[in-house]
Amino acid sequence: MTPTIGVFDSGFGGLTVLRALIARMPCAQFAFLGDTARLPYGSKSRRTIARYAAQSARFLVQEQGAEFLVIACNTASALALDAIQDAVPVPVLGVIEPGAAAAHAASRTGDVLVIATDATVQSHAYLAACRALGLRAIEKACPLLVPLVEEGWIGHNVTAEVIRIYLAELTAEAAAKGLNPDALVLGCTHYPLLRPLLEKAVPSGMRVIDSAEAAAQSAVHLFNGRAAALAGERESVHPVLSAPFVERAGDSSDYTTQVRCFATDSVEKFERLGSRFLGRSTGPVQLVDLGG
Amino acid sequence: MTPTIGVFDSGFGGLTVLRALIARMPCAQFAFLGDTARLPYGSKSRRTIARYAAQSARFLVQEQGAEFLVIACNTASALALDAIQDAVPVPVLGVIEPGAAAAHAASRTGDVLVIATDATVQSHAYLAACRALGLRAIEKACPLLVPLVEEGWIGHNVTAEVIRIYLAELTAEAAAKGLNPDALVLGCTHYPLLRPLLEKAVPSGMRVIDSAEAAAQSAVHLFNGRAAALAGERESVHPVLSAPFVERAGDSSDYTTQVRCFATDSVEKFERLGSRFLGRSTGPVQLVDLGG
């Protein structure tokens, strides 16, 4: 039987992670939960985020049968990964460590920039994950970018100006500290939609690192490893990965991957905006009540 | 005994309403609750907003002894006024009808513009309140303005450009419908902080109407009327209004008004940003758990 992979976000930004997962695991089943009634997590406290995230994780595991969880939310990964791991008896993968690992692979100078929400930055989770890999990182909260994406101003001159201002402040801070950054980590699942503007805005030679892509790649490795361990054959590949493990960019309309989407509120908004993030229709989104 | 007036918002934007209330009722006691754990209401559904708002109203009445409630939140006023009135046994005043009444008093052409959050606009509560007064109204959701205020970009050129774009779209729509608007209603409690930029951006001759001010004025009238009715003397004035009923603009540091602030999350952020909206320190904010 094909196992179910649970993917969780506070909103629908995490659909960028689901999109990257589908590209790598087209034969898996996915259950995605957006805790839209309580978004954004980015401006809330650790205690509150941990409570919300644990409830959401239990829904995916206990009610949707997820055997593996990907926390497709930087804020929840930064502030609640332990709480989620305590709440459910399945492997849980966040987006922070994969993002930091990808930055480590990309950077030559060892200095990286991170942009994220307020709460992710205040947690200094990227800073810690980068430091553990020997990188020096400078983080900056960019609270206007999520609403700009949700307003649909993806390629707008106002968005370009906001990005220019944020990056100028960030690179000035890096320079003042004597750093020479050559990678920019997108520490929020909304930001991949701004990648074209960000690529234009960064200094030449600076690599843009997408945590969504990095997390999807780590998920495949972790899932492979676990499937192999369960089967007692370390070299085997789980059936969900029976399709070749190659990136399938571009048109994803021919995927038959089974995806069920759930939201705690705003099903209409989720369906309307979600396709921008997922790169195809979300299908009908089911409303769930987590009691919050 | 001085009665307590409860003031409720999803966040701290409603502190602009509290500020206007304090200016008019400096001898009253106020209990303000910001349901910050669950903000923003503006992107949530009617059902969810009604549930959250009713819980918040019960807290102010049952636990803080409020004898009168002002819903200092356009979204909750638009979508949950009935639910709140059902939930508590005290008079409840929202901000929509006072805002529409102030627009009616200000407009000569009878055509008005309204800017607000997504949920307030989708409820068409201002449209209905304006229509009931014989006004024609056109509403527009401006979801970037709240994050711009919260980022502190109150006088920023990016904010000016966003306002220019929103108002250009709104006035074009009004013109296409043959309307000749001469008033702009600020249908969100964050927007009064953008009043200087908005005043510059509107066509000459257009009046900017602040729902916070209008609601505070209505609250005084309603409270006066109720106090008089309770006393059995229709012309008497309740002791909370013993100070002269005049606007006390400018420095409010000499107010001795007793204000207790509560928040469901982010006490630190509330205290840090709240003073911008209240015009003075919020004092220590108490964290409360509404079980959400």
Outline the structure in words.
Two copies of one chain form a homodimer. Chain A is α/β, with parallel strands linked by helices and 292 residues long. In chain A, the strands form two sheets. Chain A has a six-stranded parallel β-sheet with strand order 4-3-1-2-9-10, with helices on both faces. Residues 242-253 of chain A have low confidence and may be disordered. The first copy, chain A, has helices at residues 15-24, 46-63, 74-87, 96-106, 118-123, 125-132, 145-150, 157-176, 195-201, 211-231, 267-278; strands at 4-9, 29-34, 66-71, 92-93, 111-116, 136-141, 183-187, 207-210, 258-263, 285-287. The first copy, chain A, folds into two domains: 4-94 and 212-287, Rossmann fold; 97-211, Rossmann fold. The interface between A and B is medium-sized, with 25 and 25 residues.
Give me some keywords for this one.
2 domains; homodimer; 11 helices; 292 residues; Rossmann fold
Structural class of chain A: alpha/beta
- Physical arrangement of strands within the biggest beta sheet of chain A: 4-3-1-2-9-10
Considering residues with a beta carbon less than 8 A from a beta carbon on another chain, report the largest interface and each chain's count: A-B, 25 and 25 residues
Query: How much strand of chain A?
Result: 15-25%
* Shape label of chain A: globular
| CATH overall fold name of the largest domain in chain A | Rossmann fold
The count of strands of chain A amounts to: 10
Alpha plus pi helix count of chain A: 11
CATH architecture of the largest domain in chain A: 3-Layer(aba) Sandwich
Q: Report the CATH C-level class of the largest domain in chain A.
A: Alpha Beta
Q: What sequence of helices (H) and strands (E) makes up the elements of chain A?
A: EHEHEHEHEHHEHHEHEHEHE
The averaged pLDDT of chain A comes out at 88
Rounded to the nearest angstrom, the distance between the terminal CA atoms of chain A is: 33 Å
Strand count, sense and closure of the main sheet of chain A?
Answer: 6 strands, parallel
Output the radius of gyration of chain A.
18 Å
Are there runs of chain A of 5+ residues with pLDDT below 50, and where? 242-253
The tally of structural domains of chain A comes to 2
